[in-house]
């Protein structure tokens, strides 16, 4: 008899949340792997903005969505955790309501095992509520928890989450042993962890509304920026065959008519000659009726005149870059991935290729340990002078990164013991030189032409 496995994408509990083409890609890859091994897979997406029962919840406003696949989540105000009571902002549950979630659980055949993913460390309250409800509706079923929160705050997850099994790192590495230990099963199919092209395509058929799909071209990043956790969440830097990436895009485009695709790679443009350039040339050659979005900061250093032209011709519509700061000193200290001169040259190439100012979004980190409002202001003005759009990216301290100890010392909150204080909305490492009022003024400045 086929065993049933339930996969769950949990709620977001936060002051703000927006769907920038987010999909639980890791969970959907796991679903395909399980299917290859003859398991029956069920999926509940607590963030599903299109759930038909949302319209029956009179206290929930149906969210506005864009044809590109981005948009707002359904939301409802909830009580703040005690440690956040003093924050003068509304705290929300983003996604379907608990009533809808419970009904989904009741309508699903009782699983033999439940897998739950996790994202931001400070979103754990929504995760914990998800687990508590599962315990009530389907008691006695083992719950396995993985994802970013577990990777970065393993001890916290083990002590407080209520999950039976905690999986830090990439789940594919231990899935064989886990299923053998819990269900007594031996897997017949396991992909080569070092070869991303050996993985089956993600189980996108489980997604209710196929408005856009994320596509993976690599895992990890060769850089070691002091504020970034990519090397903690991935085992090295691994890449896919660029032509096989285009094969996947064309497959989903023809199968479901999907015309919007997103890339969340940490290093999409790195080694562009062998990776992204052949991919872009193949997209153009096949004349795919698709649009592409890159909300995760791309590396400006890799932008050339030729690559800019290819990006534009291949219909990469949403492009965002990780500029971070105009401070030469901090650029060097944080990893040295870009200089002001390289930034200016790259933006010039993009403008010459046809991109306008609003299309060239450059992230500027705000709230780094010891950072002043003047540094952020200088960065905003520099990006504007180059002809791009500055976008404030509030710094969230991440355990295990090179900057973590500095952040612990600089923070006005106990970020070492309470992941809720990692929330970038709080500007955890702000201070007299970069106060909340200064931050609001800087934010307004980015919106001015």
The outline comes out as globular
Category by helix and strand content = alpha/beta
The total beta strand count reads 16
For the record, the CATH architecture of the largest domain stands as Alpha-Beta Barrel
Strand content: 15-25%
Q: At the fourth CATH level, what is the homologous superfamily of the largest domain?
A: Aldolase class I
CATH topology of the largest domain: TIM Barrel
Element layout with pairings:
Layout: E1 4-9, E2 12-14, H1 25-36, E3 40-45, E4 75-77, E5 92-94, H2 98-107, E6 113-116, H3 124-137, E7 143-145, H4 148-152, H5 154-160, E8 165-166, H6 175-183, E9 213-214, E10 218-219, H7 230-233, E11 238-239, H8 242-256, E12 260-262, H9 276-286, E13 291-298, H10 305-313, E14 316-324, H11 328-333, H12 340-353, E15 360-366, H13 373-386, E16 389-394, H14 404-410, H15 436-446
Helix pairs in contact: 8-9, 9-10, 10-12, 13-15
What descriptive keywords fit this protein?
449 residues; alpha/beta; Rossmann fold; TIM Barrel; 6-stranded parallel sheet; 5-stranded parallel sheet; 15% strand; globular
